[in-house]
Design goal:
With 60 residues, the protein is mainly alpha-helical. The protein contains 2 helices and no strands.
Length: 60
């Protein structure tokens, strides 16, 4: 949540200062952060976690 608050503050600053390029990038970052927060909030608690398949280590 701290990341989201920081992004909102930075967006407000960019709007005040007229940093249009920075503003667009911050909005994209905020949308991504909100998407991840939503995924975390809707994930089942205490359920299995998919860690993927292990890969074989190749020695040199």
């Amino acid at each position: 949540m701290e990341i989201r608050v920081n992004l909102v503050d930075r967006i407000a600053e960019a709007e005040r200062e007229g940093w249009l390029g920075e503003l667009e990038g911050l909005r994209v970052s905020l949308a991504g952060a909100e998407s991840k927060i939503s995924q975390i909030d809707t994930a089942p608690f205490g359920g299995p976690v998919n860690l993927g398949l292990p890969t074989r280590w190749k020695e040199r």
